[in-house]
Automatic annotation (TrEMBL):
Domain Major facilitator superfamily (MFS) profile span(s) in chain numbering: 9-394
Record family assignment: Belongs to the major facilitator superfamily. Bcr/CmlA family.
Membrane topology: Multi-pass membrane protein
UniProt-listed PANTHER family: MAJOR FACILITATOR SUPERFAMILY, POLYAMINE TRANSPORTER 2-RELATED
Record localization: Cell membrane
Segments traversing the membrane: 7-24, 44-63, 75-94, 100-121, 133-155, 161-183, 213-231, 251-271, 278-296, 302-322, 343-363, 369-388
Primary residence: membrane
Entry keyword set: Cell membrane, Membrane, Transmembrane, Transmembrane helix, Transport
Record's protein name: Multidrug effflux MFS transporter
Protein species of origin: Mucilaginibacter rigui
């Protein structure tokens, strides 16, 4: 594969991966204006974010079997079309209930892009290069938190929050054209693959029962929920508690994203010297320590705006290192049913994230305590899952070796 071809493929796959996060981040600065426009509270507007996370969680499981049955591109086109229709609907929303419902539909469409992009990484690139490619996708993904809130803040101030959804519609259309003209079909349709409930469930169970998958999918997904806690709580904490403007919020959001993106790129250098398993372990331990300091600082109310930003930045650095490695390790055992495995990986991540998002919304606390506590809980549980799961992985490998020798 030429370097130019490699670049084009990573760019398109990265754009597909970034569509969902871009849809989340761009409208965050508009929360107060949406609340005024639709005659509701900021907390209720946050439920449209929660419904988006729930939609992604549900849609992940829908597209996995479809990608393995019909190939990668047909389900991807269907999801992008659904996303475009829902985005236009969001523009015309006249009530918070309508916006919440349409955001759910929009999410179901966007997760076709997320599942397909992860699956196609496994299809197109060698397994040994997957962690590196995932890190590059995160680099493109980083355009979302760096650009989306900043653009969203200016668009909301100048033209109103509704225009954000027209911009998202145009972005989705451009991505669809790029997929059509430049992204190859990486997996032929499999007529023998059944879409009946029993075979699909059995396929999911086969993936879930693999120790390497559930260990890294769960630990990575739980750690990643710290990012969801930040995304859900940051409009309230930064704009209402610390009283920064929507434009300033966009810039702060962009600054914090540098931690997540930068750490993911540092990971590309780390995997040259260390195994992914070692990197994940160290990053999770660091996340636990940093989150604990954040909780103590929040409880004592000594951090202020700058201290809060620093703590969040460090936590996002840990997540940025953890995420590409856990994704690569979870998908490594699979080839033929990579679509099913990718959808489950995303479902774990988004399901946990949606629960965290709703939890943050329900706290309704005028402080950063809920965010910090959830980050500490996420990192601690993720580390515990990793420790326990690795014992099961070793046991599984030992059992296979024994069976092979006996045979």
């Amino acid at each position: 594969m030429t370097s130019k071809r490699y670049f084009v493929l990573v760019l398109i796959l990265g754009s597909l991966t970034a569509l969902g996060p871009f849809s989340i981040d761009m409208y965050l600065p508009g929360f107060p204006d949406i609340a005024k426009s639709l005659h509701t509270s900021t907390e209720n507007v946050a439920l449209s974010l929660s419904s988006y996370f729930i939609g992604i969680s549900a849609g992940q499981l829908l597209y996995g079997p479809l990608l393995d049955k019909y190939g990668r591109k047909p389900p991807l086109y269907a999801g992008l079309a659904l996303y475009i229709i829902a985005s236009i609907g969001c523009y015309f929303s006249t009530s918070i209930e309508m916006l919440i419902a349409l955001r759910f539909v929009q999410a179901v469409g966007s997760c076709a892009a997320a599942v397909a992009s992860i699956t196609m990484v496994r299809d197109i690139f060698p397994v040994k290069d997957n962690a590196k490619v995932f890190a590059l996708l995160i680099l493109i993904l980083g355009a979302s938190p760096m650009l989306a809130p900043t653009v969203g803040g200016y668009v909301t101030t100048a033209f109103g929050w509704q225009l954000i959804f027209i911009i998202l519609t145009v972005i989705a259309m451009l991505i669809t054209l790029a997929v059509f003209f430049f992204l190859p079909e990486s997996y032929k349709a499999d007529p023998s693959y059944s879409l009946k409930p029993k075979p699909i469930i059995n396929g999911f169970l086969t993936v879930i029962k693999t120790p390497q998958f559930y260990t890294y999918a769960l630990s990575g997904g739980i750690a990643f929920s710290g990012l969801f806690a930040y995304i859900s709580a940051s409009p309230l904490v930064l704009m209402e508690v610390y009283k920064i403007s929507s434009k300033t919020y966009g810039w702060v959001f962009a600054l914090l994203s540098v931690g997540f993106i930068g750490a993911s790129q540092v990971n590309s250098f780390l995997i040259r010297k260390y195994k992914s398993q070692q990197i994940v372990n160290t990053a999770l331990i660091a996340m636990v320590i940093i989150s604990a300091v954040y909780v103590l600082g929040s409880l004592q109310n000594v951090l202020g705006l700058v201290g809060t930003i620093v703590m969040i930045f460090l936590v996002l650095c840990c997540i940025g290192v953890t995420s590409p490695n856990t994704s690569a390790l979870a998908l490594a055992p699979f080839e033929k049913n990579a679509g099913t495995a990718s959808s489950l990986l995303g479902a774990f991540q988004m399901c946990i994230g949606s629960v965290v998002s709703v939890g943050v919304s329900l706290f309704n606390s005028q402080s950063s305590i809920p965010m910090s506590v959830i980050m500490l809980a996420a990192s601690s549980v993720a580390l515990l899952v990793l420790i326990i799961g690795r014992k099961n992985i070793k046991g599984s490998v030992a059992a296979k070796d024994s069976a092979f020798v006996a045979h």
